[in-house]
Amino acid sequence: MMAFATQLSTQVWAEINRAIARVNTNSEITRGQVIKIDASNRNVYVKEFGETAIPLVGFDIDIEFYDTTPTGVQKKTYIAKARMPQVGDLVIIARQGGARRLPLCLGIVQGKNYMVR
């Protein structure tokens, strides 16, 4: 006879959850605190990855605006770049393709006073 999900005990569900947690310990998304930066190459270093340079991934944003001057209106363009993380910043890192592939720094965690569960 086959057991249905509603017939499983709390103890069995707890064991299933523990097994899933053991499998998912090597997540493709992780976070780490920046211990060193290479600003000229836009790379960060975190303790978990040792001396592996982690490139910052981001999008440059083109901002177009109009400036009124005594001679008329001029269209101007400004390119905004992603802010480079500083030492001590908490960053989100993607392990693209798994733990043995090139990690990518997706950005800085900007929230404060939150609880990690």
Task: Offer a quick outline of the entry.
The protein has one helix at 10-23; strands at residues 29-38, 43-46, 54-55, 61-69, 72-80, 90-95, 103-108. It is mainly beta.
**Sheet with the most strands, sense and barrel status:** 5 strands, antiparallel
Strand count: 7
Along the chain, the helix and strand elements come as HEEEEEEE
* Distance between the amino and carboxyl termini: 38 Å
Mean pLDDT: 81
The quaternary structure here is single chain
- So how many helices? 1
Q: What fraction strand?
A: 35-45%
Rg measurement, Å: 23 Å
Biggest sheet strand line-up: 3-2-1-6-7
Unreliable spans: none
Estimated structural class: mainly beta
Descriptive report:
The chain has 117 residues and is mostly beta strands. Helix content is 12%, strand content 39%. The chain contains one helix and seven strands. The chain has one helix spanning 10-23, and strands spanning 29-38, 43-46, 54-55, 61-69, 72-80, 90-95, 103-108. The strands form two sheets. The chain has a five-stranded antiparallel beta sheet with strand order 3-2-1-6-7, with no helix packed on it. The chain has a two-stranded antiparallel sheet with strand order 4-5.
